[in-house]
Amino acid sequence: MALDMDFVRGEFPALKNEWTFMDNAGGSQILKGCVDKISEYYYSHNVQLGGSYDVSQNSLKAFGEGRANIATLFNAARPEEIVFGPSTTVLLQFLSKAMLSQFKAGDEVIVTITDHESNIGPWVWLEDRGVNIKFWPMNKETYELELDALDAIMTEKTKLVAFTHVSNLLGTINNVKEITKFVHDRGALVCVDAVAYAPHRAIDVQDWNVDFYALSLYKTYGPHHAALYCRYDHMEELDSLYHYFYDKTKIPAKMEPGNANYELSYASGAIVDYLVTLGEKAGSKGTRREKLEAAFQDITEQENILCEKVLSYLRKRNDCNVLGINDGTSPRRVPTIAFTIEGKDPQQVCIAMDKYKVAVRFGDFHARRLSDSLGITDQNGAVRISLTHYNTVEEVDKLLSALDEVLAK
Q1: Neighbours of 187 (CB within 10 A)
Q2: SS3 call for 204
Q3: Cβ distance 99 to 239 under 8 Å?
Q4: pLDDT of 1 strictly over 80
């Protein structure tokens, strides 16, 4: 393993807890650097922005620094393309509202059956304005979204396709660049939910040419905060959600009604600081962005080891159904692993695991439409083990030993 695990785990003080955290897709542990920056902001910058005095000016600078750091995380062309908000759910609700004037009755929006409801509900709401909503179906045999199926439902009236980079139940990485080009070639925009992707791989919104791309920072080692990328030309066209005098030229403030949370925006920058340090430890001597990319290469290597260890165990069980790709070394797999066990209630499995101080979770994880489609909602959904790079081989051994005992009962 390339990662210096002593360093990694030292950056997450909560890992000293007696619990082994394997519910990271619901919310990762927070970096010490983020907590430190929250304290720093409160003690040094806790005034309203826009004042003439130096404390206020420094607060504005700190807020801007946070936005610039998260722009690096996305590889956005400019910091103004980043919108902050309390969660991905809220930000995508904001986006659909800010795009309302761009839709007319008879227009079409396509969503997928595989998404978290955050990237379905805000678009389904447009039905009240006469917009037709279509669902891009999943191949139930392969759990895949296929372009042929998308092509079959797209028309000249299709204005937007909303899809997930990684399903939080399936753990499969969709080819965002390929899908985006396919959609753009047919004259529509894309909105991508990156919540389940962002903790595991480097993001590159410029290379993928996406229009809108959202993630939750609290699932990516930061505080309870979120960020939405809006390509600048699209940002200019969005309606303002703020006061009437915040017109379309107020970028990105028009998308942050009531103002974004200053201290969490600033603190989120520590996520990038941490990744840059990991990249330096990996030997990268390039830009901050290049160091971040090097860090994710090592993160992927670590996570593949952990993911394959779990999936190898599950593959050997003839009573187990893994949702999604069952090869942990696949480049299209993140270590978010959902499964069902024949004759076992996912809720009872998780409750039994609590006794071993191993935190896993059951349910549909707000991917209710996918859960319904798979026929597992009435059976309490699935058990989900969601790992990340700060988990260790020893923790996975503990997990599997506990799971073996729980499933034997």
Answers
A1: 12
A2: coil
A3: yes
A4: no
- HSE at residue 305, side-chain half, CA atoms within 13 A, is 17
Token pair, residue 129, equals 């304005």
Per this entry, what is the length of the chain? 409
The pLDDT score that the predictor gives to residue 247 is 85
Beta bridge partners of residue 164, listed in sequence order: 193
The closest of 96, 124, 82, 123 to 226, measured between CA atoms, is: 82
CB 223 within 8 A of CB 30: yes
Closest to 283 (Cα-Cα) out of 293, 271, 273:
293
Q: Is the pLDDT of residue 248 over 90?
A: no
CA distances from 209 to 202, 213, 352 (A): 15, 10, 45
- Do β-strands 226-230 and 212-216 pair in parallel, antiparallel, or remain unpaired? antiparallel
H or E, element range at 205 = helix 205-208
**Predicted model pTM:** 0.97
DSSP string, 230-282: E-HHHHHHSPP-S-TTS-TTSTTGGGSTT---HHHHHHHHHHHHHHHHHHHHT
Return the pLDDT at 333.
97
- Tokens 């045999």 — which residue? 141
SS3 content of the chain, % helix, strand, coil (to 5): 45, 15, 35
Contact at 8 Å (CB) between 191 and 229?
no
Structure tokens at 80: 């103004």
Domain 5-29+294-408: CATH class, spelled out: alpha beta
Tell me the CATH number for domain 34-272.
3.40.640.10
Ranges of each domain in the chain? 5-29+294-408, 34-272
Spatial separation of the C-alpha atoms in residues 132 and 101, rounded to whole Å:
15
**Pair of tokens at residue 233:** 């030309």
